[in-house]
From TrEMBL:
Residues 20-235 form the Dienelactone hydrolase domain. Pfam families: DLH. SUPFAM superfamilies: alpha/beta-Hydrolases. InterPro entries: AB_hydrolase_fold, Dienelactn_hydro, FrsA_esterase. It comes from Streptomyces tricolor. This is Dienelactone hydrolase family protein. Belongs to the AB hydrolase superfamily. One of its GO terms (molecular function) is hydrolase activity.
């Protein structure tokens, strides 16, 4: 493992001052970079630790913000903000591009070698960046198997990996099928991993506040999903010393 340096980054998006978490690997050379998007509750230590873990592997990583520095632990407040956001691709793209611009401007980032990985709402934003034609080397989404506007998925020019729990009521089989049909029709290099017995947000450690129905942590599948993300990055964004 390498020594990791972290710092908070303020930037503007969606009419808010966002507060992201940047993690840098040791050294001063340019490295491939990863944008990390959080679940609908917002940026937390879970995503910060994931960015740090990616930096330990040698990536520049930015865990981006959704709610202007706030973490929405009240399910009703979270849904009141996230449902309109998920229904508005242009807003999602604005949030994603603002964070992507920050990551691309970081001197340690190789601007031609960037991936986007997101969970839930953050995963939907990663997909919308691809549908908007963003120059990405890979897209990974967990619990965020959203569909887009007709024809725009053909603008995704990188591999897409998606993970979902088999018992996720928020991303049920019909939603999975619509997502994969859209990817296939657009000619995207896509993969879907279904984790048996897992609920929504199975990757996220149990929280100490109420959640929406259908959420549950699955430690074994959480580890497997993380390995799948790392494997995606190793394939599409290999670290070369």
């Amino acid at each position: 493992m390498t020594t990791v340096t972290t710092r908070t980054i303020e930037y503007s998006a969606d009419g808010l001052t966002m507060i992201g978490h940047l993690a840098l690997p040791a050294g001063d050379d340019r490295r491939p970079a990863v944008l990390v998007g959080p679940e609908g509750m917002g940026l937390s230590d879970v995503e910060r630790r994931r960015a740090d873990a990616l930096a330990e592997l040698g990536y520049v990583a930015l865990a981006f913000d959704l709610h202007g520095g706030r973490y929405l632990g009240d399910p009703e407040e979270m849904l009141a903000r996230c449902l309109p956001l998920l229904a508005d691709p242009d807003r999602m793209r604005g949030i994603g591009h603002a964070a992507l611009d920050v990551l691309r401007a970081e001197p340690r980032t190789d601007p031609d070698r960037i991936a986007a990985v997101g969970y839930g709402t953050g995963g939907a934003i990663a997909l919308e960046l691809g549908r908007d034609g963003a120059d990405l080397r890979a897209i990974g989404t967990v619990n965020g198997l959203t569909t887009g506007r007709p024809g725009e998925t053909a603008r995704i020019h990188c591999p897409v990996w998606a993970g979902v729990g088999s018992e996720d009521p928020i991303m049920p089989p019909a939603q999975r099928n619509a997502f994969t049909a859209e990817m296939q029709a657009a000619g995207v290099d896509w993969r879907l991993t279904v984790y048996g017995g897992a609920l929504h947000a199975f990757h996220h450690p149990t929280v100490d506040h109420p959640t929406v129905p259908g959420v549950g942590y699955h430690s074994q599948h959480a580890q497997r999903a993380w390995r799948d993300v790392v494997d995606l990055l190793a394939e599409c964004l290999p670290i070369t010393e």
